[in-house]
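Training component of the fellowship. As part of building independent skills, the fellow (R.M.) carried out the full modelling exercise for a liganded target. The chosen ligand was fe (ii) ion. The inputs are recorded below so that the supervisory panel can assess the work.
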Amino acid sequence: MIDLLIREARLIDAATSEFVDIHCDGGVIVKIQPTTSEAITARTVIEARGTLASPPYVEPHVHLDTALTAGEPRWNLSGTLWEGIACWAERKKSLTREDVTDRVSEVLRWYVANGVLHVRSHVDVTDPSFVALDALIELRDQMRDVIDLQLVAFPQEGIESFPNGRELLEEAARRGVDAIGAIPHFEDTREDGVRSIEYAVDVALRHGLLVDAHCDEIDDEQSRFIEVLATQALRSGLRDKVTASHTTAMGSYGPAYSYKLQRILLRSGINLVSNPLINLHLQGRFDGYPKRRGLTQVKEMLAAGVNVAFGHDDIMDPWYPLGTANPIQIALVGAHATQMTSPDEIVECYRMVTDRAAATLNVMDRYGIDEGKPANLLLLPALDTFDLVRRQVRPSHVISRGRIVATTPASTTTLQWPGREPEFVDGVRMKDAAGASWRGEVKSVS
Ligand code: FE2
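Fellow's submitted model of the complex:
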């Protein structure tokens, strides 16, 4: 007897709509085979009835330590990155371990409910008490059985421009982070910015860690730290273990420099993370009209062969007052912000919150619906990836390490239009709904 059998699922990236049975045991996918009538005994059976099976969502960029602090002690009324940093500098004086643990564990539960099983969080380490970092390291270990959490030592107020910035970054590495961050566009001078990247890469190399730098998060076409970070990625040999987050200045680079930049980005193997919700919200604040969109060159860099992922960035904090930790919302907003709305581009937007984000986190060895991989997957009652993004379909089941950790019943909105029989309405076109077995109820049988 196996632990879990998922019958009649459709693999989301399969070329055909063939139904498959997914066998999970001991937290691992042990077999995937075309659906048969053969009797298989399992402790839990899910009758998927054509529902899509997808690898879990991946959050490549969030700040868990600041989540759920919007308005404390005051609201960021200008809506700029800079006022956000000032608000947070005031709020972090009152951090306690319990405060951080309560907020972070709540948001991580939201993530799991939404189908996210890998999260990379930046943690502000320009705080000599390390209250937030220590709390997050403890939570990372406590929640390991459900969700993978990567922590980035993030020098929010600078490495070169903050008192003892270098020592704080080194100490964070010693305490046990997974990646080293930087914020070169915030440093006092361009030279400080360059030195901060070189130092961050040096710490990562000495401690065997990944790198994820906030890079060029500003509407300034003169901010070009991305070329420094990519060159460091190439020359250090870290390559795809390095990520440049935001790179919003790239939205203002002209064609000649953009073309030159593609070459070093490709050779370096570096990843980019765009954060559509927050970039749309924070950038362009100093513009009149025309007002810039505030995003990096997502479509162009994907076309050039660079790996790009979409992240949330902030959830109800000084930099963004909204957010529900739901990646399919990021994919939808990202599709609009980048004008990636052709059928193939909509699929790319889904990939940017799944496998492209997993590649950014360097977790592809344990990611995907394949025999031998951890049994982490979602069941999505949608026709296909396009339908999933368009209707913002929630996972009916979230499965982590072979266990069902979240369930969402199907939408039950009934339209009672005068003169018509009551009908079920969820945005599905009737011609699609007519023979679509995927709308069948998904049941769990213990
Ligand atoms: Fe960020």
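The panel noted the following from the submitted structure. The chain has two domains: 2-54+368-445, 57-365. Residues 125 and 168 are 6 Å apart (CA to CA).
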